[in-house]
Amino acid sequence: MPTPATRARKAPARAPRAVKAQPRVGIVSLGCPKALVDSERILTRLRSEGYAVTGSYEQADVVLVNTCGFLDSAKQESLEAIGEAIAENGRVIVTGCLGVEAERIRAEHPEVLAVTGPHQYEQVMEAVHQHLPPAHEPFVDLVPPQGIRLTPRHYAYLKISEGCNNRCSFCIIPSLRGDLASRPIHHVLAEAERLVAAGVKELLVISQDTSAYGLDLKYAPQSWKGRTWETRFLDLARALGETGAWVRLHYVYPYPHVDQVIPLMAEGRVLPYLDIPFQHASPRVLKAMRRPAHQGRVLERLAAWRRQVPDLAIRSTFIVGFPGESEEDFQFLLDWLEEAQLDRVGCFKYEAVAGAAANALPGAVPEAVKEERWHRFMQAQQAISAARLKARVGRRLPVILDQVEGDTAAARSQFDAPEIDGVVKLTGAAGLKPGDIVTAEITGAEAYDLTARVSKG
Ligand code: SF4
Fold first, then answer.
1. C-beta of 211 in contact with ligand 1 (< 6 A)
2. How many CB atoms lie within 10 A of CB 55?
3. Torsion region of 417: left, alpha or beta (phi above 0 gives left; psi -120 to 50 gives alpha)
4. Interval 314-354: pLDDT, tens
5. Contact 273, 251 (CB under 8 A)
6. Model-level pTM?
7. Are the beta carbons of 258 and 233 closer than 8 angstroms?
8. Rounded to a whole number, what is the largest CA-CA distance in the chain?
9. Over the stretch 264-312, which tens digit does the pLDDT of each residue have?
10. Dihedral of the alpha carbons of 100, 102, 107, 110, in degrees to the nearest 10
11. Which of 91, 92, 105, 163 shows its CA 20 to 30 Å from the CA of 245?
């Protein structure tokens, strides 16, 4: 979902401006956490070259809009954000996933100064240099060693790769971002170390396919702190587990080798949490979706994981109304859901994405049927999620504080990722601060959230 990070307000002049002592760039960041990481990298580059970053349209000399191009609704939102930035500031550079549709952007907003695509950091910087030259030599020392982050100080997204080798029929990410390109493990670990040294308490590992990490590099071994680590999922999880931070794994597919990471969860080195985008359960629909990882034995695999880590929380996303999905397929999904007992689930009604192979599939599901299935799905899952939350009442669990206000705080347990899962509404938090990890006694469960008080014991 789009997450505007640094939205600004009101800015008048459109004419080229005299460059001030420190040129100022505003940034609007839309899209998924991966896009947020791109924005952070761009911000880091900007700051390293002496640009100031402002949260105000009025003060910005130029505004960067980092767009999302995943779904048509996200594209529309991106186009609207570009329009808003033009209306409020007038000098706009577009980047991100929608950037691959430069003609569409220029047709709707001919005023944009430049359009670049996803991960084109060099091109973005070139566009900024062209339209807002740096005032003077780089102030490298202005950049904190961990770079500039848009997330709160105590958690950070760690992007381990770009692109994807899969070709799911509903997805255009591989055509936007290319095949899997993993970062060598020592680079990722160096970044993780910097983040932890800067106060980060929770690392959120993200990519398009985390379990495939390193495949493109043939799992090349690298030396890090006197030890050899292979550029692969298991070694990455192991090494991150040694940083002392909470390590949360997102976008993992249930490949057999994921089994090897479960003992790290049992040992408390990695959070007992897996974000696995299942998307469906019916073998027929999964085949049409061209999903990776054989789903046949997934329920067995989940059961085996839970035998080792009874607390394992699993979050997932699903698509209902995919072309060709029959009532029987849908019922299969509901039955599967009942057995899988997932903790957190998002559900989307299938939406055709321009350029996706699935658009050519027969058997479009009528909107009214999609809607009806979505409601049935949500009702079934809500009951499962609520029961799983309720089972936590009475327990004492470690929680990390995100926001503190007087005696109350919004916190998260190890089972909840920021922004996408629920919160723990905490009392007794006076004197604590964001990033603190304390033990909470869980006193109640709501539809999505838990209530708790700080444990004094
Ligand atoms: S795994 Fe499938 S849905 Fe995910 S990015 Fe790759 S192609 Fe797209």
1. no
2. 13
3. beta
4. 999 999 999 999 999 999 999 999 999 999 999 999 988 88
5. no
6. 0.76
7. yes
8. 66
9. 999 999 999 999 999 999 999 999 999 876 666 899 999 999 999 999 9
10. 140
11. 163
Residue 165 zone, left/alpha/beta (φ > 0; ψ -120 to 50; rest): alpha
Q: Is the dihedral of CA 375, 380, 384, 389 positive or negative?
A: positive
Nearest to 364 by CA among 326, 402, 419, 394: 326
Q: Is the CB of 173 under 6 A from ligand 1?
A: yes
d(CA 149, CA 246): 18
Asked whether the beta carbons of 58 and 24 are under 8 A apart, the reply is no
**Pocket lining: 168 vs ligand 1, CB cutoff 6 Å:** yes
Q: pLDDT by residue (tens digit) across 123-134?
A: 888 888 888 877
Angle value at C-alpha 216, between 213 and 217, nearest 5 degrees: 90
Residue 104 DSSP class: H
Could you tell me the two tokens for 402? 């995100």
**Cβ distance 229 to 235 under 8 Å?**
yes
- Model pLDDT for residues 409-434, shown as the tens digit of each residue: 999 999 999 988 999 999 999 999 99
Q: What 3-state DSSP class applies to 406?
A: coil
Closest of 146, 93, 95 to residue 117, by C-alpha = 95
Sequence-distant (6+) residues with CB within 8 A of 431 are none
**Which atom of ligand 1 is the closest one to the Cα of 164?**
6
Separation of 48 CA from ligand 1 center, angstroms? Answer: 33
From CA 354, how far away is CA 323, in angstroms rounded?
Answer: 15
Distance separating alpha carbons of residues 363 and 256, to the nearest angstrom: 33
Token digits for 137?
A: 């030599």
The Cα 345–Cα 422 span in angstroms is: 11
User: Taking the CB of residue 147, how many other CB atoms lie within 10 A of it?
Assistant: 19
274 lines ligand 1 (CB under 6 A): no
Atom of ligand 1 nearest to the CA of 165: 6
